[in-house]
Amino acid sequence: MLLAAVLVVAEAAFSAETTEQTPVLRIQADQIVAPVSPIFSGMMTEEINHSYDGGLYAELIQNPSLNDNPTIPVHWTAMQSGGAAASIALDNSQAMNEQLTTCLRVDVAKASATALGGVANDGYWGIPVRPNTLYRATFYAKTTPRFNGSLTVALESSDASKTFARSTVEHLKAEWRKYSVTLTTPRGMAATADARFVLAVNAPGTLWFNLVSLFPPTWKHRANGNRPDVMQKLADMKPTFLRFPGGNYLEGSTIATRFPWKQTLGDLSQRPGHPGCWGYRSSDGLGLLEFLEWAEDLNAQPVLAVYAGYSLPPKNELVKPGPALAPYVADALDEIEYVIGDTKTTWGARRAADGHPVPFNLHYVEIGNEDWFDETGSYDARFSQFYDAIKAKYPRLQCISTVGNEQPEKKRVHSRTPDVLDEHYYRSAANFEQDAPAHFDKYDRNRPKIFVGEWAAYEDIVPWDSKSRSLPPTPTLKAALGDAAWLTAMERNSDLIIMQCYAPMLVNVNPGARQWRPNLIGYDGLNCYGSPSYYVIQMFNANQGQVVVKAELDPALPAGQPALNFSITKNTNDGALFAKLVNANSRPQPLEIDLAGVRRVNSRGSCIVLKSVRLEDGNSIAEPTKVAPITEKIAGLGRRFRQTLPPFSVSVLRIQTK
Ligand code: AHR
After folding, report:
1. Which of 37, 484, 567, 625 could serve as 488's disulfide partner, Cβ 3.0–4.6 Å?
2. What's the pLDDT tens digit per position in 577-625?
3. 269-272, long-range: CB within 8 Å, 24+ apart, which pairs?
4. How much is the pLDDT for 498?
5. Which residue has the least CA distance to atom 9 on ligand 1?
6. Residues 486-506: pLDDT tens digits?
7. For a substitution probing ligand 1, which of 43, 310, 369 has the most ligand atoms within 8 Å of its CB?
8. Could you tell me where in the chain the CATH 2.60.120.260 domains are found?
9. Looking at domain 2-38+545-655, does it have CATH number 3.40.190.10?
10. Residue nearest atom 4 in ligand 1 by C-alpha distance
11. How far apart are CA 124 and CA 430, in angstroms?
């Protein structure tokens, strides 16, 4: 958060200047209306917009196991320098094992010490290369018998004019073997994403490659790990949970292409990948264990979604509840056992063998995703079948239904009372702003708790409309104001809304990489940035408190003008009050703040403000913090003081009380 050392004097204590129009925010600091859920704010993730491959997952080679296209070795090109001759093709006759059956064949017809022939991979919109950095390359290779050339492994510019790092492998074998090299770039080079990865030989022959991998340094130096810069952005949000693996990605476009968790475990050579539901294949390099470790690395608990027998529209493939669904229920129990089972259990032992003997901190299991799309009415029976089996084996686990109160009554039938209901909200900023003051306040408190498992404001064009592709990948200030309004609604009601997470979270901003907008955090190969909505979430999470206190606006703002949305929470340990105030209006909004139920108010406090001149302003790779919060110190606070909220702004006031 940016800190400006500005001392702003709150606009004088309550005085005769107060006009009739100035609304008063009456805060009753000793009247607790709700606890703030300790796991209120988390993350939602799935493979969309190149969230993992070409995103968080640090692997730099695209199509590492040659499965992305059945006929062409996409992202691989023949490479021939100084008059060498080489050609490449997919080869299904040299299976590396039962999982990786297609490999890359490289025929080098002509090569010498000064004319290398081989193959290059262009990565995800280029291979990002930074100065003074160690890269680890691994690959499986075999050659024709008696091949005695040496193999150069290199990082070079896409036009081959510069080599950034190089290593050599001798004595390649005629059988599949794994090779590892390190590549270290020089200090003086400029970082570039316009690079490629090369495997090339100095003698004629035929070579085969598979599972070619290149890793830069990763978060916490994990092997097969994540990008440090994106992980840092996530850590800075202070998330309490990670909902995975979807979203639609859990369900798949068909039953056969649902998230195949068992195939995502263990050594990468055992992971064939699978067709994703967002138009590209997933390598599954970021598999079940990596999801769990990602959550663990951020001190967040996993919220595991299990496949519940229903795949996506338009096919709407369905497994009938009853005996046909039993294997899917058993599969979910295996998956849960992998996550929390004792190491004496089959899948707990497998987790230990994969490197994590300690069970993960799982409390919530979500049964399916958006099952309100199932028009056959089978969800009640499917949910019951999963619920009964999960509760029988793991009574302490909480089961989340994916059909919440927003759905028509007939779809909400539940023969087993879910512990939690998942509701999703993708709405315009204006709609969030108008609906926030009352939406959740009206909910029946006797019904199950709510998990808002996906939500995001869009400006004007719905996220799934292809017209949105012409807009920036991440939301503008206009959407962030709607997001902030919605967050005040959820936070004020966090006795009921026990968890919430924005979606989608990640987007590769390169052309053609995304399927959806808006998205919270954008990146290319070298850089990443948070959108204004990201900063809103960060501001809320850093100033959460443990309880919501009573607050009312008097009088409410006139209808027709964007609502002034607010949520007031308190830290019960030290008496600090956090006033989150959203002014979606183009005019400054004066506000009297009236504090009751406190003995003393410290005259000095702080105010974090997110604002910009134009609603269309947003952040980007070029301007990553154009719209970012500024922290100001403020003075003149008391039992009654006046604060003017800037136009188009989100403010978090920290008021120290006793
Ligand atoms: O967040 C994008 C998609 O929106 C999710 O995959 C799905 O659950 C929802 O419809």
Report:
1. 567
2. 999 999 999 999 999 999 999 999 999 999 999 999 999 999 999 999 9
3. 269/96, 269/97, 269/99, 269/100, 269/140, 269/178, 269/211, 270/97, 270/99, 271/65, 271/99, 272/65, 272/67, 272/99, 272/100
4. 98
5. 247
6. 999 999 999 999 999 999 999
7. 369
8. 76-215
9. no
10. 247
11. 36
Of 258, 259, 370, 402, the residue with max ligand 1 atoms within 8 A of its CB, to mutate for a pocket test, comes to 370
Q: E-strand spans in 295-397?
A: 301-306, 364-367
Separation of 248 CA from ligand 1 center, angstroms?
Answer: 6
Distances (CA, A) of 238 to 41, 512, 538: 8, 30, 8
Q: What's the average model confidence in pLDDT over 196-214?
A: 98
Q: Closest ligand 1 atom to the C-alpha of 369?
A: 8
Residue with tokens 């840092």: 232
- Sequence ranges of the chain with CATH classification 2.60.40.1180: 2-38+545-655
Q: Provide the CATH topology of domain 76-215.
A: Jelly Rolls (2.60.120)
Q: What is the pLDDT of residues 385-405, one digit of tens each?
A: 999 999 999 999 999 999 988
pLDDT tens readout for residues 93-137:
999 999 999 999 999 999 999 999 999 999 999 999 999 999 999
β-strands 241-244, 301-306: how paired?
Answer: parallel
Output the six-digit token pair for 541.
């999470």
Parallel/antiparallel/unpaired status of strands 576-583 and 76-80 = unpaired
pLDDT at 528: 98
